[in-house]
Amino acid sequence: MFSGVATLFVSLTILSVTVLAKPIAKTVTDSTGDIVHLQLIGDQTFQVMDNFGASDAWACQYVGLWDEKVKSKIADLLFSQRLDQDGSPMGIGLSAWRFNIGAGSTEQGNKSGIKDPWRRAESFLNGDGSYDFSKAAGQRWFLKAAHRRGVKDFIGFCNSAPYQLTTNHLTYATKGKTNLMSDKYNDFAAYLIKVIEGVKKSAGVLLNYISPVNEPQWDWSDGGRRAVLIEIMK
């Protein structure tokens, strides 16, 4: 993508929608030789998609610290809804951005049990209980870049509660069990409120949605990436 720098891979699911004035029918043959009849009906709505989005996990914590010109070009590719002089899109025009609320595995280092440093994340919550909203500088840069380019919806999501609130003091569950301490639910909620307030003050962007758990159906016990199981129904 750029000469002299690592290629940034962003996992995106792209839905291509074509609006048709009238139904179009087509007959094709699949790989088994069976005939498949397709009909596209453009004037019937089956689903409304609120947003086309992606998340900053995990590369943006580092990419956001790159050279200003390079990372600004990447931000344009992600968020711009403008057209260049020949009418080509300058970017894919994401309309929602998910902000990874780190749990402190970066601060734990190798003791975190997470082998890949790119899968660790800083936490705004310090070990002494204070908060430092100068952390996650690369992520906050992309948050502001998205906001400047017209993104309206920002979702703060957690792969884990802060390690200070987990039963094993790690940012991933072990033995497939709930990892948030049973007496720390209120503390976790208060922490998320503090993060919303701190990010708004430090980055000027409101996290207008919060996802307190991420992919809770999966067993992340190997520590390949940080995640925690939380008992939802409390």
Structure in words:
The chain has a domain at 53-211: Alpha-Beta Barrel (TIM Barrel). It contains 5 helices and 6 strands, in the order βββααβααβαβ. The model is unreliable at 1-21 (pLDDT under 50). The strands form 2 sheets. It has a 4-stranded parallel β-sheet with strand order 3-4-5-6, with helices on one face. The chain has a two-stranded antiparallel ribbon with strand order 1-2. The longest helix has 19 residues, at 185-203. The chain has helices at 60-63, 68-79, 105-108, 137-148, 185-203, and strands at residues 24-29, 35-40, 53-55, 96-100, 153-157, 209-211. It is α/β, with parallel strands linked by helices. Helices cover 22% and strands 12% of the residues. The protein starts with 23 loop residues before the first strand and ends in a 23-residue tail after the last strand.
Low-confidence stretches: 1-21
Give me the strand/helix succession.
EEEHHEHHEHE
Q: Report Rg.
A: 21 Å
User: Can you count the beta strands?
Assistant: 6
Sheet having the most strands: 4 strands, parallel
Give helix % range. 10-25%
Keywords: Signal
Signal peptide: 1-21
GO molecular function, one term: hydrolase activity, hydrolyzing O-glycosyl compounds
InterPro entries: 6GAL-like, 6GAL/EXGAL, GH
